[in-house]
Amino acid sequence: SKARIGLVGLGVMGANLALNIAENGFPIAVYNRTTSHTDDFMADAGALADQLTPCHEVETLCASLTTPRAIIIMVQAGAPVDSVIDSLKPYLEKGDMIIDAGNANFHDTRRREAALKEEGLNFIGMGVSGGEEGARHGPAIMVGGDPASFEVIRDIIEAISAKYQDSPCADHLGTDGAGHFVKTVHNGIEYADMQMIAEVYGILRDMDGRSAGDIGKLFEEWNAGPLASYLVEISAHVLQASDPISGGPMVDMIVDKAGQKGTGRWTAIEALTLGESPMTIEAAVGARGWSAAKEAREAGEKIYAGLEVQGGAHAILDADLEQALLAAKIIAYSQGFALLDAASKEYDWNLDLGRCAEVWRAGCIIRSSMLDEMASAARAGLPNGQLIFADGFAEKMKDASGALRRVVAAAALKGQPMPAFSAALAFFDTMRKGRGTTDLVQAQRDFFGAHGFDRVDGKDHHHGPWGSGLKSF
Ligand code: 6PG
């Protein structure tokens, strides 16, 4: 008998996704370019092997599937996806579908979808979050592409996904690249959330002199409150782990240079292209970049030693840090939702922000106890496009923003860098000031470029009486 679905790419994520599909009772055919890998995978599959059809050729894979065919690709994003698509095409028929489950750039997904459509093939861009564990036991799944094609595989995708209460954390969110875009923004928020937690860790370690283990215990307490989330929980966990070699905290032995594969950076790039500035996410991407310049930082530590303001800064209370993290996190989500909305308009996706947030409630890396409330707020419509103005969240911001302010101020006096927190506060204060300072920027632009400006009284006079005669420069 034939398999319902196929999968190409038995790396960590692909192998776990295949086992998840098999365990949910869907017969699946699998293929990996290195055939010995397929054999090893089958040897480890145990009882699930019954549901799995190993294939050593792409042709056999395609011949093993019921039609219309549905084939998941789980390979490294970029050129490898195109080469897998090319290798499959000769064995596919009109109406078949290819599903890219990797972390693709959504522009690539849009290009691939359009090109395959011309050949009568359907292409689904599917963002999958939750790491290895999620792939095996229930990830969050963000789907983009032709909605009718998704209906063909909906039962499988919902079955393998994480569940929030009984609701599957998987859905079709929009056409072409919508799923991969939502996954990209998910990752941008993930970057911001991780960076903010790390900034709090920095204050506790560098200003308070606390041990990693103590900080881990504090995070564990926070994980029982409003900050309850996967990322706070794993941070509590890793901070309390010991290095098997030195016996000290594991984190103390880890080089402070962070890697990145691209999704956070893409979030910032796409945002800027759309005229959005999710500065918490940009700061998190930037902080990873700065972290890589370790030698420069070490040199800077010598050149600029001792510039902290002595005295003056009050001690930061744990409760303030907790509230500040809450406020900064709400701001990061506010920026993420605003970006989703801007992209939805630009690409005609008609994204349901409430549904996006619902899909994030379980299985994914940014899952947290706040997401259900965020989903309700998004569903009700975000005032002026911002979560920080929504009922419930505005109250939380009023309660917590003082703590954010105290933390950023104290850190600044003591020379403790908080790029994401500072960006969050700058955004918040900008958004609660009806009259900003770009009147001067507009005047400057008009001075040197005759760009013109609008007047506050609406009168029809759009250039300043600048004259000439500068004294210098
Ligand atoms: C997830 C993760 C996962 C991965 C990303 C980000 O949602 O399961 O986001 O996709 O961690 O690739 O990785 P980098 O930090 O390496 O960019």
From TrEMBL:
Cross-referenced Pfam families: 6PGD (PF00393), NAD_binding_2 (PF03446)
Protein residues bound to NADP(+): G9, L10, G11, V12, M13, G14, N32, R33, T34, V75, Q76, A77, N103
NCBIfam families documented for this protein: gnd, PRK09287.1
Function summary: Catalyzes the oxidative decarboxylation of 6-phosphogluconate to ribulose 5-phosphate and CO(2), with concomitant reduction of NADP to NADPH.
Name the UniProt record assigns to this protein: 6-phosphogluconate dehydrogenase, decarboxylating
Signal peptide stretch: none
Quaternary data: Homodimer.
Family annotation (SUPFAM superfamilies): 6-phosphogluconate dehydrogenase C-terminal domain-like (SSF48179), NAD(P)-binding Rossmann-fold domains (SSF51735)
Gene Ontology MF terms: NADP binding; phosphogluconate dehydrogenase (decarboxylating) activity
Residues reported in the UniProt entry to bind substrate: N103, S129, G130, G131, H186, N187, Y191, K261, R288, R445, H451
Organism superkingdom: Bacteria
Gene that encodes it: gndA
Reactions listed under catalytic activity: 6-phospho-D-gluconate + NADP(+) = D-ribulose 5-phosphate + CO2 + NADPH
EC class of the enzyme, as a word: oxidoreductase
UniProt GO BP: D-gluconate metabolic process; pentose-phosphate shunt
